[in-house]
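Two folds, back to back.
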Amino acid sequence: MSQELHRSVLLREAVDALVVDPDGFYIDGTFGRGGHSALVLELLGSGGHLLAIDKDPQAVEFARSRFHGESRFEIWHGSFADMDLAAGDMAGRVSGILLDLGVSSPQLDQPERGFSFMQDGPLDMRMDTSRGISAADWVNSESEAELAWVFKEYGEERFARRIAGAIVRRRAEKPFVRTLDLAEVVKAANPAWEKGKHPATRVFQAIRIHVNGELEDLQQALAKSLALLKPGGRLVVISFHSLEDRMVKRFIREQEKGPQLPRGLPVMDRQIQRTLRSVSKAVKAEAQEVGENVRSRSAVMRIAERLG
């Protein structure tokens, strides 16, 4: 398997925020091609351990090859939504959890994975190619109303209904099987193109998020992080679009506030059980990183610390 070049976004910033104890137990919930994992291992002492997780069988294979013989490292094939299963009996003992969301560069750059609207390939888009429904199966079978809902909710596409209608009319004549075929139909149905953005960008994003259950997985992972992290442990999340970032921001804010009690209840502030505190303001890539890696321009990193 080729070892595709991949630049981890906010690499140093994320790992510096994550590793609070060199001998701690850490989880990299989105291994990708191991950029963050490699730097975490550099900072870990002999007593440290890193559990990496990835849905993508190619990423898992790459991890086993890259870190073969590294006793402080293990890779688990699956979703970070199941990180509690992967971590075994480590509840309340994890020093840090890193989630680098979205699609990885190798996935985008391989036409055969079906993520790209710029290169022709089979319309797949599954991060885990060993299970689930492909983008082609979904696009060719879902109702027009559901297509429109997904495009609007997950892609924030203004012309969701118009594009969904065009897809349904075309698939009645010929089912979609290739990425560029779908991209051309979306392009033709989109009446107002955003400057500097391909007209199929939002629709492809929406399909990818839906097919892979990305937002549902994120919601589960955030909730499970609370039971896994030990007091002082860090949660570091890098998001690449507003839906993810809003979910992460809202989650941290809710945990900072603690349970919402009825007004007038005689409870002192110090008695409210809060589970997280925000460590810093949202972190974004510096101009130099954006210049070197255009995919970093939309990245937003949020950091929270588990309270005792």
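---
second:
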Amino acid sequence: MFTGIVEKMGRLQKTTHQRESMVLDILFPETDLKATKMGDSIAVNGVCLTVIAINEGVFSAEAMPETYRTTNLSLLKQGEPVNLERSLPITGRLDGHFVSGHVDGTVKINRRWQEQNAIYYELALLPSEKRRIVKKVQSHWMVQALL
């Protein structure tokens, strides 16, 4: 689980595409990597990925075909900054929300508009998807499903 609060910024060093999957090599401050080990979960731009290698300030993580197809990770370019968050330890302080980092599906955005510092999205949802949506109001960025 994650809190949804960006912990650090990393930089995409390299991607290796393999049809509809990929390996991302991400430069991560060495001091933060020393506690990271193979198999750890790290959210990259909010997407839960598993560390498959660590080498000299760079960790590698694999995106499976579903993740490749349903996120924008495949669009990242070399050198771009990425948001990083290590998973929440069971004894950790919760400073945000419980977020799984897993994609349950995709929907079409019908409309997007801004109201002061909030951005709203009207999503095209199937009746079966509506049960997964919870209305939530936040002060900065907002996603609100208009049911």
